[in-house]
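Re: that backbone. Tokens:
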């Protein structure tokens, strides 16, 4: 364990360098491990097991065995377990936040926000567990009665990303457990320690062995992924990550078996500012949407469209805030830091490529635009670019970094066309004081989620998900638990037989 971690964690037993299978912390069968680094200082935090196909099959078998009894527990009992887990997350919020900052790099304040957000899913689904109602349906035959009940789908494989290492786990696991499913989590190689800490808190909450299993891998990710998608014991796969990997997993889910699947994939979110908008509010919305987690969110604004009449004013205000108010660095060293490192140098290379491409094609840098090598290889300045055009890479690719590219538009019809000119359809943002225009634009955008006069749309109560190549299904909200349930129809006959 790194000295920094030792000195700052209140409960050092939450730092765990193993995987969690059938209620036990265990190494990989091979004994192999991989390093996990702090992206802020490129320091090795610790190691985790390099799990294989055999390790994954053991975890799946444990989940399948646990499912036989867990599926019969009452909804109220599952609700109480989730609530206990929620309470333990709240009690250990500071340690969880520190783990996120150390392995993900996001500033401590944002990490605290993520922990609160992550815990809210456990609270939400603890309340949804008893509300998986069925229906009674009038039958055509007068002697029959049709009823439906909802049943847990079975063992679920959950593949989660590094950018929200706590919230993306609880958003899936909370719904799965509320439904009566058991899970195998493949945690991200970049941020496995947050997942392990959550599993430990779940164990302390009394969640039975085998119900939650966590496997870790780096180099064996293809082998582990295929094991999860091909196993006949796994009945559902939920994945958050890139569109390319999502498509691969979807194909694999139909190669040997046919599994229920939900996918939360890439985005290319338009952020639209009409000339009648409250410009200060729009700037604040853009700052939140674009630069939260240093732009490493799937719903962050990727293309910022500003109407001609307010373009220059918006650009000036946004760039001034980025130049004057943002500070890049390690938030564990300085409380003045507002933005931490990107996850690794490959992320920095992509951001730098997008900025370089835009400038070469005529864009102007209003703020930032440079790497920060004196801080380390994973830092890039929050950046604002003006004079963007649709032939630039940033217009068609998800940057996943702290770069705000500003595009001009003239009319409502034009901006809707430009916004929809992508295969992605996750989120969009609209700023206007005209309710009719807001509604028309929201209806016209080909996305799964719209923020009207807000740059923050994430909420446990809100259905999260996209359309087109941004994925399938919804997470969170009352709809999220349905992803882990199947509907069984029962027809009762002979009801018109005389007594």
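Recovered sequence:
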């Amino acid at each position: 364990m790194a000295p920094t971690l030792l000195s700052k964690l209140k409960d050092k037993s939450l730092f765990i360098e193993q995987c969690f299978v059938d209620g036990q912390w265990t190494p990989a069968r091979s004994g192999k491990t991989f390093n996990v680094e702090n992206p802020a200082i490129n320091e090795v935090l610790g190691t985790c097991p390099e799990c294989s196909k055999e390790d994954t099959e053991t975890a799946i078998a444990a989940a399948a065995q646990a499912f036989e009894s867990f599926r019969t527990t009452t909804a109220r009992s599952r609700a109480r377990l989730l609530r206990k887990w929620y309470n333990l997350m709240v009690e250990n919020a500071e340690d969880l936040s520190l783990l996120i900052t150390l392995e993900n790099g996001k500033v401590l304040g944002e990490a605290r926000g993520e922990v609160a957000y992550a815990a809210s899913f456990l609270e939400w689904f603890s309340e949804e567990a008893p509300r998986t109602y069925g229906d009674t349906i009038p039958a055509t035959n007068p002697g029959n009665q049709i009823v439906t009940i909802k049943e847990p789908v079975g063992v679920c494989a959950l593949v989660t990303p590094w950018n929200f290492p706590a919230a993306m786990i609880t958003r899936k696991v909370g719904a799965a457990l509320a439904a009566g499913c058991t899970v195998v989590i493949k945690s991200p190689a970049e941020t496995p320690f947050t997942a392990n800490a959550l599993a430990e808190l779940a164990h302390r909450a009394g969640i039975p062995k085998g119900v939650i299993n966590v496997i870790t891998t780096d180099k064996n990710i293809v082998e582990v992924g295929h094991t999860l998608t091909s196993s006949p014991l796994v009945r559902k796969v939920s994945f958050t990550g890139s569109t390319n990997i999502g498509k691969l997993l979807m194909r694999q889910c139909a190669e040997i078996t046919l599994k229920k699947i939900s996918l939360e994939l890439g985005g290319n979110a338009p952020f639209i500012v009409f000339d009648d908008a409250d410009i200060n509010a729009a700037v604040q919305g853009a700052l939140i949407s674009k630069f939260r987690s240093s732009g490493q969110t799937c719903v962050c604004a990727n293309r910022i469209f500003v109407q001609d009449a307010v373009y220059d004013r918006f650009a000036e205000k946004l760039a001034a805030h980025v130049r004057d108010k943002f500070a890049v660095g390690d938030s564990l060293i300085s409380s003045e830091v507002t933005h931490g490192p990107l996850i690794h140098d490959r992320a920095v290379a992509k951001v730098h490529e997008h900025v370089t491409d835009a400038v070469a094609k005529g864009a102007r840098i209003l703020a930032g635009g440079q790497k920060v090598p004196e801080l380390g290889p994973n830092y890039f300045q929050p950046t604002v670019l003006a004079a963007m055009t649709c032939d630039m890479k940033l217009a068609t690719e998800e940057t996943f970094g702290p770069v705000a590219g500003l595009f001009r538009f003239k009319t409502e019809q034009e901006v809707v066309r430009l916004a929809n000119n992508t295969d992605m359809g996750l989120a969009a943002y609209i700023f206007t004081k005209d309710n009719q225009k807001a509604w028309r634009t929201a209806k016209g955008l080909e996305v799964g989620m719209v923020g009207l006069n807000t740059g923050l749309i994430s909420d446990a109560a809100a259905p999260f998900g996209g359309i087109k190549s941004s994925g399938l299904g919804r997470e969170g909200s009352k709809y999220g638990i349905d992803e882990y349930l199947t509907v069984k129809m029962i027809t009762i006959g002979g009801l018109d037989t005389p007594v």
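The chain has a mean pLDDT of 97. The domain at 270-452 is CATH 3.40.309.10 (Aldehyde Dehydrogenase; Chain A, domain 2).
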